[in-house]
Design goal:
about 55% helix, about 120 residues, 5 helices, globular, Cytochrome Bc1 Complex, Chain D, domain 2, mainly alpha, single chain
Length: about 120
Amino acid sequence: MDPVARFKVGLMLTLLAAGAAPAGVQAAAHDRVLARGREIAAGQCVACHVVMDDQKIEPLLSPPAPAFRDIANRPDTTAPLLSKFVRTTHWDLKSLPMQMPSPQLSPADTRAVVQYILSLRRQ
């Protein structure tokens, strides 16, 4: 994501967190964040996870890593826990058992993926 787009997403997230934007603007910004999170997941996470119900590509791992919907519906799943997991797990060819590789996401993209995962919770 280019620096200007990253700034805009960060600004929108800041406004959302502060409650400073009108409800319609907040909803639109939230929808953009979720769309960005889904886009990132579709590009980087599908090799190992089922990231969306209509996913066309089967994960390469057998068995696959947990589906995003399953992760979202775990009782202990929180935004801070997901954010830390996405930012801090790493994998290299020497690490066994295999761990998730670092996707090297910006803070704004990490928040977008986290919000996308959390949006998959059953209501």
